Amino acid sequence: MTQFPAPTGWYDVARKRLLAGKSLHPTQHAQVTEAVLAGRREPLWSPAASGNARCRTPTKFADWFGLKLATGGLAQAVLFPRIERDAAPAVGGCRRTLSEADFMHGVTEDRYPDILGLAPTGGSGSSDARRSVAYHLDKLLQHTVALGHDVAANSVFLHQLLSE
Q1: How far apart are CA 55 and CA 62, in angstroms?
Q2: Which domain of life is it from (predicted)?
């Protein structure tokens, strides 16, 4: 079994790498990088009240944290999370299904420009492909959940929810 740092230890690994001159994702907000370098862990909020997450490219998970990247997987459930600063982890009361808004395309997915002109229009595949994905995912167990900023509490809650 591969040994890797617990998620709460990843911050320290990332900070050490940044202090050594490495960089996060090219679209990383400068204020987030500055906060990590300064050792601050509290969430940063943009004026639109959306969180500014630390961006890592997939290769950094292998290179920085010693994780083997998956080449496939099986979905067990679909989660529709709502993140609120002080929320206690809980199951939401409503049922919902995937919609077009759940697929990143157009202006919501502009981090990787199509410089070679090879990506399909819209950036997230054809509408038929999205409908097919939504159809298959809709067959899985689905949960709307509220999560807060307590990573340990969220982890325990999600483990219990998905183990039932």
Answers
A1: 14
A2: Bacteria
In the block, residue with structure tokens 């900070």: 15
> Which of 150, 149, 147 is closest to 79 using CA atoms?
147
32: tokens are 């987030």
The reported pTM is 0.59
Which residues of the chain fall below pLDDT 50? 1-6, 49-50, 108
Q: How buried is residue 147: exposed, middle or buried, by Cβ count under 10 Å (0-12/13-18/19+)?
A: buried
Token pair in block for residue 20: 């050594």
Say which amino acid occupies 93.
Answer: G
Q: 90-124, pLDDT tens digit by residue?
A: 998 777 888 877 876 655 455 555 555 555 555 56
Residue 129 backbone dihedrals phi, psi, to 5 degrees = -65, -45
Q: Which residues neighbour 142 within 8 Å (Cβ) at sequence distance 6 or greater?
A: 77, 78, 79, 80, 95, 96, 97
Q: What is the pLDDT of residue 90?
A: 95
The CA–CA distances, whole Å, from 119 to 106, 131, 132 equal 11, 18, 19
Q: Running DSSP on this structure, what letter comes out for residue 71?
A: S
- Using DSSP's 3-state secondary structure scheme, residue 81 falls into strand
